[in-house]
Amino acid sequence: MDPVLSEPFFLTGTRECEPETQILKAGALTAELIGGNLRCIAFGGVEVLRGLSFLVRDRDWGTCEAEVSALQVVERDEGFRVTYRAMFTAPDGARLTCDADISANAHRLTFTAAFTPDKDFETARAGFCVLHPIVGLAGSPVTVEHTDGSIEQATFPDLIEPWQPFQDMRSITHTVTDGVTATCRMDGDVFEMEDQRQWTDGSFKTYVRPLALPWPYSLQAGETLHQSVTLDTEGQGPVGETRNEPVHVSIGDVTGRMPELGLGLRPEDALAEQQAIKLALESAAQHLICHFDPTAGHGVDALRGFALIAAATGLRVTLECVVPCIEPLNTEFSRVKMQVVEAGLVLDTLAVSPSVDRQSTPPGSVWPACPPLEDVYAAARSAFPDVRLAGGMFSYFPELNRKRVPGAPIDIVTHCTNPIVHAADDVSVMQTMEALAFVVRSVRAIYGDKPYHIGPSTIAMRQNPYGSATKDNPGLKRIAMANVDPRHNGLFGAAWTIAYMATVAPAGLDVLTVSTLAGPFGLIAGQGEPVEEGKPRPLFEAVKAIGALAGAACHRVTSNDETRIRGFAAEVDGGTPVLWLANITPRPQTVRLENSWNAISVMDADSLANGQRLVDAPVTDSEVSLPPYAIARMS
Predict the structure, then answer these.
(1) 242 three-state secondary structure
(2) N or C: which end of the chain has fewer CB within 10 A?
(3) pTM of the entire structure?
């Protein structure tokens, strides 16, 4: 296979191309037009808004894809104008037609939308979404105008806010850079902001329709609604240029220890997992994270499957136990204990969470009935007195942040993350690393130095806390909330995994789990993937790198541009450092190394296309070239 022709497939695991991006300019104001929406709106080269989009969600918060037609783009010296029609189709076939108009000059950008459903259209949200960047804005001053005209002087949250930091909004003003301010005004409905870093989105999100109002709701057939967003900039700032210079990377002092590695197991993949025992050993993992859900029919047979793999690998077992909370708690935990004993499964850790806590409770909603968590943990201790007890959420950080489990009764706090809750384009998925840094810092602020586990955290979504189900993805596209994601199978998944480890390293995790052993979230390639069926997926190299360094002294790694290159370093062989880097962009990057390295190995699209993994790479004048989404090992 020609590596050049096949490169996108090896990179992202899919032959589907992302929508074409067009750069629009109006004086010092620039924006990327993609799929009818705007991304990376900048003034003088400084990002003002991360995104400005008209979006439609179905009743389960899935994204209704837009079919764009009649797109016209007119560019003049003084600015630009974009018009188009977008058609959104709900799962029940209802259609919503939106006529959009975007216009801009050097200091003002306006995006208007008039939208009409052909019949009653059930939606969780339909309207504008404004994304502010987080790096540089978190903790900084902001001015909010409310719908009654009152003015609030506030700050963007630093630690992640569990609820909306700002409500009933009409406009929001912040400093872009010295001498430049930006005001974003939203009309046509009531807007509010949520701290979208909770879901590891790299943004503060201002959206239409308060969450306290009922959802899903219906747009009435034939009724036309109007909304608009206007961005005004004031002042004259320095004009920046896109940085093409090398990324400087260096390693510093020891900051802690590398986490141990977990591998997820699921009863649905039991046969494939048993066939992959050798791969589990090769991964250098220390833990098996075994998902057990009595409400899904899991019983002693599932536990026997876990026991078989645990006995064959010698790995320590964490049982991720969903608690139905239907019968008395002691009865439910006694039943689990009897099944564990019958299966011959030896536990290192019992992680517990009430079944209802896997679903989100949005602002304004009634919390579902649930026993006090102190009672849940006490019953778990009674049934399993000799194992460590983990508490937290089997879903994501927002659920933990909003329902903060008591730390005193548990030995370990745990949660997962997912990068495709709201957006699934390549840029947004990699931008989640910016928010992940705030997630782990916020957990540490809440729970101090309590042992901390994350995962299984994967690109694809294993459970949807925000709707009735995850989204099927038979076409292997980039879909939010999908239970299969093609990028997990390609080089992108390996780069994402290295970057994930690099981002959480300062938090001092005890266990990190970024894959299952088999299945759609696992290490083994299926049919029609970038590597041969039954062989390890590219992310296996990244997972193995983490497992091999478990417990080693972890060094601070400094990258002067973490939007392009992220990495982690740890000691091996009595103090010799090893550095792992990931290019998290679709473009080649040059890395300038501040330390001396004897050997460098790179995995990229070419090496995968040639049936290889990490191959030796040249270093010229302390610089190394990393192709798109490549990972590199330096020693």
Answers:
(1) coil
(2) N
(3) 0.94
